[in-house]
Specification:
36% strand, seven-stranded mixed beta sheet, mainly beta, four-stranded antiparallel beta sheet, Immunoglobulin-like
Amino acid sequence: MKFKITIIATLSMLLIAAFLLQTHSVGALSTGISGFSGKDSIYCNACHNDATAIVPTVTMFGPQIVLPGSTHTYTLKISGGQALNPAAPAPGGGLDVAASAGALNILAGATDTRVESGEITHTMRKPVDANGDVFFSFEWTAPGSASTETLYGAGNSVNGNGTNQGDAANITTLDIYVVDELPPPQAYVPIAIK
């Protein structure tokens, strides 16, 4: 009986320790984190959700019709958000991007992104540009056969105070059609306006 109680107590302590370590690892990470792209209905707003913060607009763009196995560049844009807050000490942004299939990778020479658990995340808070936007670019390689795939992106708009207070995030998706043959280019016919 004493042996069973010892085993139960030990297992309980291990579960509590694992929970505390997991909780600690989900805190504000200026070096990025994976698993918060919105792919599994969880995104950066799980921690960065201050009700007083300005929610950013997050968009993603790149080729939407590609060949199997081809590699293309995509960009996630974070606009608005804390860049609109005059009290923000150092507005910037971070990201987490996941794919339904295929492979994500950083651009050659990129220092602002990294791959973690097959997802793209930031290496540090990236400051807003002169227009108040933050851009992150990365590569996606399509799977080897025709399919419809989705990129899931979360953009985190931070005020730069070193905590998750005053930050807000938003999500976006981009559907990509992997086709065996690209459609022919459409002819452009100018229309004269009188």
